[in-house]
Amino acid sequence: MGQLIKLQDYISRYEQDIYRYPAQFVRLKKQQWTKVKAAFLAGELETLAESAVKEEEYIALEKDTVFTKMKKIFKRQETFTETLESTEVSTNEEPLDLSFALSSKPETVEELKRSFLNQVFRFQLKWVSSTIREKSYIDQVYFFDEKLKFFLQRFPDNFLILYKPIFLVKNAPIELEIIILSPTETWCITILEGEENAAFIGSKERFWVKRHHVYGDKKVLNPLLSVNRTAAVVTKIYSSLGIELPVKKAIISRNGYIDYPSAPHDTMFVDKKIHQSWLERMRSTSSPLKHNQLKAAQALLDYCQTTYSHRLEWDKEIEDGSKGENRE
């Protein structure tokens, strides 16, 4: 399952430590799947789900304990900044809550796997919109975003994904397309989809034509504009930092066809005819996460815009700590 490291301008814990969280996610997911599958085969899935509820209650209690400790530390420090710096390691050790909740009883291992991956998907949205101290208010539409779920659930763990991230280019925010970092290359991708079996007629013009036997012709914005813009930003960042990771471009239409005889050679057009084979080739990448891949991910995250607010419980603990310090 691909790892979502950035979504829009939401705060992501991958921004805190890109060299730690990807491996931690892989380990956590593997451990939980082994536990869930074993419980299913032993007929103890409901028992596991009940224990997961108790575990969530314990995690909530542990979080309260962390904040209480932070308040005590705050009293011994001269400034809030020093407090964060001195406790950075401990605050990063937030209990991980990838627990399995039973919404419906799966009949097969395949059904169990789908249910598990759906829960991991929701877990990823939490990781990519909050840290122990900060939180971004995520648009609920992403919980039902079929394209986002597709990229996460169809790619392996060693793929890092930025989904419509907002970059700061010359101090101006700009929303880019989908960026996928495999261990050996970076893909900039634009999705081009419409009705089933629609045909997209490509050209160098600003608009392409979408043709369908039922709905007729319709103009659509040339997808090369957005994918070229995304690739240009990524390439410039890599070049400025000396990062050597090939940048490739793709226009993907999973349910339609692309007809562009004079298509540019530096862009791959993945339509319904070759989509499955392209996906299988991408999924066959067996290389583990690489240092250069993580370095490239960090470089991209550094240029992303992030909007967030402090968690209410964090602000309350700090406020209480300040009052306690004033009383002493």
From TrEMBL:
<protein>
    <recommendedName>
        <fullName>NERD domain-containing protein</fullName>
    </recommendedName>
</protein>
<dbReference type="InterPro" id="IPR012397">
    <property type="entry name" value="Pullulanase"/>
</dbReference>
